[in-house]
Amino acid sequence: MKGNYKFLLLALLIAFASCSFTSKTFDNPDKDKTLIELITYVLSNGHFNPQDINDAFSENVFEDYLTQLDPFKRYFYESDIKEFEAYKTQLDDQIKAYDVAFFNLTHERLLQRIEESKKVYNDILSEPFDFNKKEEYSADYESLDYVKSKREMKERWRQQLKFSTIANYDDAISQRKADLETNDLPESVFSAQNEKPKTNNEKKSLNQIEKEAREATKRSLDELYDFIDDRQRKDWFAVYINAIVEEFDPHTFYFAPEDKDRFDVAMSGNFEGIGARLQKRMDAILVNEIISGGPAWRANELEVGDQILKVRQEKEKEPVNIVGMRLDDAIKLIKGPKGTTVVLTLKKVDGTIEDIFITRDIVELEETYAKSSTVIKDDKKFGVINLPKFYINFEDYNKRNAASDIKQEIIRLKDEGVEGLVLDLRNNGGGSLQTVVDIAGLFIEEGPIVQVKTTGEPKEVLKDKDKSIIWDGPLVILVNELSASASEILAAAMQDYKRAIIIGSKQTYGKGTVQNVLDLNRLVRNNSNGDMGALKFTTQKFYRVDGGSTQLEGVKSDVVVPDRYSYINIGEKDQENPLPWDKIGAVDYELWGNYFDYDTTIEKSKARMAANEQLKLIDANARWVKKIRDRELYSLNYNEYKKEMELNEEEAKRFEKLSEYKTDLTFNSLPYEIQLMEQDSVLKEKRNRWHKSLAKDVYIEEALNVLHDLKMTYAIKNKVAGVKN
Prior knowledge:
Layout: H1 5-23, H2 31-46, H3 55-69, H4 78-84, H5 91-96, H6 101-124, E1 136-138, H7 150-183, H8 206-230, H9 233-245, E2 253-255, H10 257-268, E3 272-273, E4 276-281, E5 284-290, H11 295-299, E6 307-313, E7 320-321, H12 327-334, E8 341-347, E9 353-359, E10 361-362, E11 371-377, E12 380-386, H13 402-415, E13 421-424, H14 433-440, E14 447-454, E15 460-464, E16 475-479, H15 486-496, E17 501-504, E18 513-519, E19 534-543, E20 559-560, H16 598-611, H17 613-630, E21 633-635, H18 638-653, E22 667-668, H19 671-679, H20 681-695, H21 698-724
């Protein structure tokens, strides 16, 4: 097997950087200009798909940058935009000349408008809102025009603030109702240990509640503006730089020095906080990954796609509204020392609002490792292996990695007499390419696994050259929309070889690119400008053995099953400026030779899926989630607003029985783990929780059905083959 491909990439990157020391110098005393020069040089020479920095590029940067500065369109006026438009097709020329005139203009104007807006929101929130008035609020910010006057600006702020306040108002009224109901209960229902709660809302008038709701909105804005005021010019300049680099593709990103330090910590595997990765879309802070083994994962309440609305520290009374806040500032609020608790107010994927409590900790890397279980289905024993990521020790490949662990788990499962294997890659965001090649090699004799292409260079084919096969029995691979990158390579290879049946979402995430991170300080001699930060940029694309890319299209499942993400925008194709799908030449590979009847098995599975009531309900829930998330008009009349909320809650109840689903399956740990659990109660609890979730998992249930069917077709075909021989 070839050496770790990541090492090769790193060597090439270092060589590229070293070459830059001699072929190009970056010695402009102006740090901003040096940074633009550095980044444009690296991207034009190192990016997989360098962009033409022309007028069209300039227009895209212009639009995206202003959207990032003012997503609600509540700072800039139409007159500002008209003034800025003089630069709309000039930014390409400015970038090439390392000119920052446009940034300087917009930055100064933004600070001016932010300062003006403080008086606007304070004036508005000093007067009561009339929640009896019939009016609507549109959250479709992209369709809004920029305002023409101060009067229009105040009206825009009024509507947005009223929308924020009506939620606080509703919360307070709901709490008052709950308190009054509690007061009506007799003392006898409360034990000595569970005293009757003290309430303080029962005597408050609606006017008092409205005033307190406005005050809560004001406190949130005051705190948001404290964060804004703390931002330095370099922070705003990083926004401009990223508006430029993100035109190349969604995975190219500039890390300012502080961000680079945080990225370095993340890459080291030490996550102190809640254990979730976040992204910003427009004004919203969204969860885009739950780090396996972390506090959020263990609490099991936060989901990918949830929006975090507010953050409260355990010793604070009032939460901070983070809607519209810079992502870095929001992360600072959410992160914190191990052992402390943070309260997150979430807008769940299904549109419901709830608070969750997470005790911060350091992510336990153990939970990112492969784990396995046995289960008996229709008198046959099967194995399930869960792989959260394709992990590796980059300093020493011979140390523990995903491939060696999967191999060990398969051997252990074989010792237990399993007759089929489920490999669960759901929510697996990827990792090492080399481990993918080695894992694929456990299931086939030998052959190509993935093709890797770098612009201007011949393609490289990564092959399994080890003829030994660790598992030659029935294989099912589970995927979903969040299975990305390395997961897609493995699923694609097994599908192309007809070695496994892929069950899951219509398609996987669709990330078919490779990124590297370059410390920009390496390129600057005698740097007197301070830390220049780092640049993550796309250097390669990978392709299936049949020549097709997984970019955008992902891997299409053989058996498609719905899940709650089925209809929402969550994949690579839904990002800004993704690289296109394309195809290169196929490589020679031999289909897996076996007696399994895949076609018949797939048809039987599809028939079962179509008749499965749980999956029908999941699909209905996914459609409802889509409808809730696409909603843009909201009533600012409280009675109508409340009716809408109650209707949503009523619809949500319809899907509560999704969590009640149970199979009659029992999952068991392997003997070596049972011994470990006798000494480790934490491990025992983790495995018990995993086994309970497997027993409620309709997708695992179907995967086992497929394995059973494959075994039956093997027996039938083997007899036929025996007669012919």
